[in-house]
Structures are given as structure tokens and as C-alpha cells.
TrEMBL record:
PANTHER family (UniProt xref): ARGININOSUCCINATE LYASE (PTHR43814:SF1)
Classification via Pfam families: ASL_C2, Lyase_1
Taxonomic lineage: Bacteria, Pseudomonadati, Planctomycetota, Planctomycetia, Pirellulales
GO molecular function, one term: argininosuccinate lyase activity
Organism: Roseimaritima ulvae
Name the record gives this protein: Argininosuccinate lyase
Amino acid sequence: MESPSRGGVFSEGTDSRVEQFAESISFDRRLYQHDIRGSQAHARMLADQGLITDAECESICGALDEIRLELDNGTLPMRIELEDIHMHVEQALIDRLGDVGRKLHTARSRNDQVSTDFRMWVREALRETDQLLLELQRAFLGRCEADFDVILPAYTHLQRAQPVLAPHYWLAYVEKFQRDRERIADCIKRVNQCSLGVAAVAGTSLPIDRQQTAAALDFDGITRNSLDTSSDRDFVLESAFVLSVIATHLSGWAEEWILWSTVEYGFIKCPHAFCTGSSIMPQKVNPDVLELTRGKSARVMGNLQTLVLLTKGLPLAYNRDLQEDKPPLFDSFDTIQSCLQLAAPLVAGTELQRERIAAGIEDGYLDATTLMEHMIRAGMPQRRAHHLVGAIVGEAMQRRVSLSELPLDVLQQHAPELDGSVREVLGSRNAIEAFQSEGSTAPERVREQIQYWTTALGDKG
């Protein structure tokens, strides 16, 4: 049986080596649900426009349902010479209906067909990813009340900086993943424009209704320029970028928790169900899920680079190079979703090592900035207060004590303006209580944010 895309001007068959080289059925078969749905919408539009009869439309749609079922069950034979999923579906239709099946491709090219199918798949994958991000946000939010009493050291330059409440830290990741979800929502606006009906490159002389098929396929509208649409893969690049940003957030979180799980930090204990052992060292509990999350993020970022390079020099309009856009994006979605599926239960199941954290929370002079701001509130210029607190920290380091352990007279040797009220801001707990600004780790501000996100993210049900 000759491929529907072959024959006519061709005087000889395709070399078998070319068939193997050019096939995409090995990866684009996952578009079959979208291809069949798009084909049924196209058939109904053709019937409404009088380009096929109602009876022919019903035969086509019924046969496509049968083909979908065979693809669901894996019983439709895959043939390299048919190249892609679109030709497999069409050939199966022709095998069943003959010339009626051949009418389906009226006013349609594989260029707009592939673009439409891919847009529907990407739209669905973005929404699935958004749901997984929501579950991860809820996992972080779900820790906040139980961990409210825990103070963690916040770092800059990987050096201890200031104290923060544990829920303030958890909500930092809720914020990051919210921006990812907002990027997804914005990306969907451009993905969700229907390509069907632009045909190969210039449109069609046949009386079709693009708005009808767009509405039937739940698109927000139609693409406006046939030439642009035939070549456009901006929606692929943008999706790959959104996934790459998610990957950076996941990788940063994984790196942090890998460090936190070490003996040197000792902040967390990951659930053993998400760790593995060593083949030679029996004591090891390795955070492999976190390490693989960090490692797999590189693939997602590399896929973005691949797609940018794939499209950077293509002239208008369609070029076969664009067949290669699917494996990188499929892989990026698969990778991010697999990471997110494990991230939420890992976050929920990880234990804070409270005693270890509390035992070291005064290390690093986390209350130094709060002491400086106490002096500023008393009227001292910021630069002078900064200098004096530096000298006080130096004194504490020499004595090997915390700032709160320095006697008042020693503090006054450096800053005579200080009085007994300074005790109210020394120590990590007092420093936490001293914060006031919106967005800070002040307990009342953190509680406001917990309430905000509890409302924003809703119940799991």
C-alpha cells in the first residue's frame, strides 16, 4: 500500500534507509489522541461546509473512534514507511473506508495538522505540570504550622546571615513555584491558538470555517497568518523555557536539601523510601532522589538549547527540521513531571532535626544585623552602627561567645549609647521577633502569608 504522502510526481519508492532515517512514529505516536480529535473536528467542519456529506462525516468519525481504540490497546500495526502518527491514522482510515477516508485531508496539510496536534498536547502537558506544581506548593505550605517554632539560619554566599522562621523558608519555595505556574498560564495563552486551516503555507481556496474547528477543539482563537503559522514553534520554545525555569528551582531546592541532609549540616532527615544505600558502605543513606532531581534538570536546560538551535536559522515557512522539535520537548515534560511527582511526598515526609538546628542556631552571629538596626532606631547613623557592630562581633569571636553572652559593659565599651534594652534584640529568637517589614520573617508577617497561601492554594480536594 502506497503512503498517502507518496506517489504522483515520484518515479520510484523511498529508499528503506531514508524511511528509517525520516520516521517519527517512534516518538510522535503519543500524539494520537489529539490527532484523532483534531481529525474528527475537521471532518465535522467539512460536512457543515458541504465539502463532504453528513454520511461521510459519520463514517469517518466512527472509523476514527475504532482506530483510537486500537491505538489505546496497542493493536494498530506501526509501519516505518508511514513515517508518523498522522499518516498511520490516515492510512488506517483509508484501509477501512477507501475514497471516503481519502476525503479527510481536504483543506488540510500535515503542516497545520501537526502544529494543531502538538499545540493540544502541549496545552494538556502544561496543565498537568501546573497541577503537580500546585501539589508541591501545598506540600511546603502543609509544613508551616507544625514547623512554626523552628528557627533556621538563612544564608547569603553560603555563609550564615540572619535567622528566619522555618515556614518563611517553606513559603519562599511556594513563591518560586507560583511564578512558574504564572509563566505556565501565560504560556498557554499563546499555545492555545488553533493552527488548523492554514493548510500547507498559504491557506486554502476551499470554503472552510477555522473558527468552528478552533471552538470544537477548545482553542481560544485561531492563528492569524498562514505563513507564520506554518513555521511557528515559538510555543515550543516558550514551553521549554518555562520548564527550564522550573528545573532551576527544583535543582536549587535539591542542592540545598542535599547539603542539609549531610552530617556537617544535619538539618533534615529525608524519608528512607526516597534514599538508597551504598554497595560497599553499609552506613550510607544517600539522597538519590534529590541528586537525580538536580542532575535531570541539566537535561531540561539542554533541551531548551537544542530547540533554540533547531529553529534559529530556518527560513519561512515549514521545514522538515521541525520534526525534531518533539523529542526534546517530550523529554522535558517527562523529566519535570517525574521530578515533581516525587518532590511533593519527599517534602511532606522529610523531618527537621530540631535539636541539631537549635543547638547551632546562635553560631554565626545571626543577630548582628538586628543589633545594628537597634542602634539605628536610637538615632545612630547606619554606617557608624555597622562599624561598631563589626567591632562587637570581633570581640565576641575573640571571647568565643555569642552576642547575647557579652556583658553590657563590654558592649558599652564599643557603643556607649547602648543600655539594657539591647537584650531585647540579641539572640536569634529575639531577632526574629524584632522584624517588622512586610515580606519579612516576623512571626505576624509569616502568619499573614500562611493565611494568604492557604486561601490561594485551596484545599487538596
